[in-house]
Design a protein that fits this description.
Strand order of the largest sheet: 2-6-7-10-1-11-12-13-14
Strand content: 15-25%
Number of helices: 15
Bound molecules: zinc ion
Oligomer: single chain
Helix content: 40-55%
Shape: elongated
Number of strands: 16
């Protein structure tokens, strides 16, 4: 029997506001435990929450960017459960009337476009953090994170493969970063994902029993955990067993999921409207103001890069995946008008260098100006592409401009045909055996001769001229 996976993702994105969602405590990451707290976020009796307007505005940005319908009136609800990191015994979230619903984003899988629906986006407060002492049988709690604003973005169960799940998450992360509402940092937990997955016979319309996967803190883990879980469910069904609805934890060291607890149903949380908060009303005018403040989004930018710069879709996708990277590219194009050449050098040597150093483009050791100058040197024929790569490495190490490195090291390309002619003659008279073989039809040896000339000139001879002169002399 052929099975098809059905995947839905729930993403929690931490909003980059200065203060928490219902009080004025700081949201800064990394402070000493329990220093960013007050009676409101500690859940003291008698205090009242006051909604942070910036949280609503940021959520509206995301809703508009993902083509959602914004509710003119939405409501906060209490989600009740007991856990030591939740001082009030309930979390303020949205339930029946979320702020946004029915949106979508577009992704690309192996070159073909796919639309993934967004069920809803709602606002909520984060819980605190438990720390477990490995040496003593105690746990400690840090309430700095309670009340930090989150949006939860729930996808429709439209995703059909682990790769599509990865593409959806990358696109979503790219959007929140473009919008400037979340830093998208998976390691620090400001962008978190839970996955719901079930399988069903290929032509079936009904859903199978799903499991929820947690502890997925990198895109790679999401894809691996989903693949593992799909296989596990398949094997269970093939063996005549049945899938149990539960929450499972991904163990990245063992590359497997293990059962954590039975999955709660919504009624377990006894949701009810929060009596301390008024319904949230958003008017047309506010929506228009937010709409007009949105930047160009990754999708639009990608289409523009293809149209304006003639880039292949692959290049445009990669360059626009990050706003700073796209800006870097466009900055280069301003001073060197060969977009594809720039794209090649960014995607190849530059991203390679940044990855190796664990850096991002905004702290690139090579400025857009210097990269453009380097490409200019190649175009003018001052240096060869091969030499350019070694100049690039030197630029990264020393921060010197390319012209200076080329001058200091005497790397200027030899384009004087008389000088090359002389070296070619020497190479030919030094290799009589190879010359004879070449003349007997072993034309592949041309590469050998080119190599000898390059060796003699330490890579500085203009390759085109070397080829021309060699052929002329050898075919005499
Ligand atoms: Zn507070």
């Amino acid at each position: 029997m052929k099975f098809e996976p059905v995947i839905g993702l729930e993403v929690h994105a931490q909003l980059k506001t200065k203060t928490k969602i219902f009080c004025s405590c700081s949201t800064a990451f990394g402070a000493a435990p329990n220093t960013h707290t007050c009676p409101v976020c500690l859940g003291m009796p008698g205090v009242l929450p006051v909604l942070n307007k910036k949280v609503v505005e940021y959520t509206m940005r995301m809703a508009i960017a993902t083509h959602c319908t914004l509710a003119r009136e939405s409501r906060f609800a209490r989600k009740n459960y007991f856990y030591p990191d939740l001082p009030k015994g309930y979390q303020i979230s949205q339930y029946e009337l979320p702020i946004a619903q029915h949106g979508h984003i577009d992704i690309e899988i192996n070159g073909s476009p796919q639309r993934i629906g967004i069920t809803r986006i709602h606002m909520e407060e984060d819980a605190g953090k438990l720390g477990h002492d490995p040496d003593r049988p105690i746990s400690m709690v840090d309430f700095n994170r309670t009340g930090v604003p989150l949006i939860e973005i729930v996808s429709d169960p439209d995703i059909r493969s682990p790769e599509a799940a990865g593409a959806y998450l990358r696109q979503l992360r790219s959007i929140v970063r473009y919008l400037g509402i979340c830093d998208g940092n998976l390691e620090e937990g400001s962008f978190r994902c839970d996955a719901n997955v079930s399988i069903r016979p290929k032509e079936s319309e009904t859903f199978g029993t799903r499991t929820e996967l947690k502890n997925l803190n990198s895109f790679k883990h999401v894809e691996k955990a989903l693949q593992y879980e799909i296989n596990r469910q398949k094997e269970t069904l093939m063996d005549g067993g049945r899938v149990v609805q539960e929450t499972r934890l991904w163990d990245p060291n063992k590359n497997k999921t293990t059962s954590m607890r039975g999955k709660e149903e919504a009624h377990d949380y006894r949701y009810f409207p929060d009596p301390d908060l008024l319904p949230l009303v958003i008017d047309e005018q506010w929506i228009e103001v937010v709409k007009s403040s949105l930047p160009e989004l990754p999708d639009q930018k990608k289409r523009r890069f293809i149209a304006q710069y003639g880039l292949p879709s692959y290049d445009a996708q990669l360059l626009t995946s990050d706003r700073e990277l796209a800006d870097y590219f466009e900055d280069c194009v301003l001073s060197f008008a060969n977009p594809k050449q720039i794209s090649n050098w960014i995607m190849g040597p530059l991203l390679g260098l940044l990855n190796a150093q664990g850096k991002t483009i905004d702290v690139s050791p090579i400025s857009t100006h210097d990269l453009a100058r380097l490409l200019e040197l190649i175009e003018k024929g001052t240096i060869s592409g091969k030499i350019a790569k070694s100049v690039f490495d030197e630029m990264a190490q020393t921060g010197k401009p390319p012209q200076k490195i080329v001058e200091e090291k005497g790397l200027v390309q030899i384009t004087d045909s008389g000088a090359i002619d002389e070296i070619v003659s020497k190479v030919i008279s030094n290799c009589p055996k190879e010359v004879a073989a070449y003349k007997n039809g072993k034309s592949k040896l041309l590469g050998f001769f080119v190599g000898q000339v390059m060796k003699a000139t330490r890579g500085k001879a203009n390759p085109k001229l070397v080829n021309e002169i060699l052929k002329k002399k050898l075919n005499k």
